[in-house]
Amino acid sequence: MPYMLPSELFVFLTDEIALILLIYREEKVNEETKPMLCDPCLCGNIQTTASRFCQTCEDPEPMCEACAQLHTRQKATKGHEISSDMKQFHQHEGLSNLTYVQ
User: pTM here?
Assistant: First the structure.
């Protein structure tokens, strides 16, 4: 999780730097709450809102409920743990190429 600068330290910063930090903090909060699209559905050109991800997979992807159920029914991923805590999903390192709901 990124380090959050305490608000009381803003008085020592220039206005420009303080503004940049506030914008960054707001963008990070928006990113963590913005709905994403299900990656497996997108492969089939279907846009479904993701509500789950696999905690077991090394490179997790956002999934809708139906895809998450299929994920746990396949032989290779049968014992995987699915989470609905999408804020936790954003804490994974190296996440990129996520598609958000417009």
Answer: 0.61
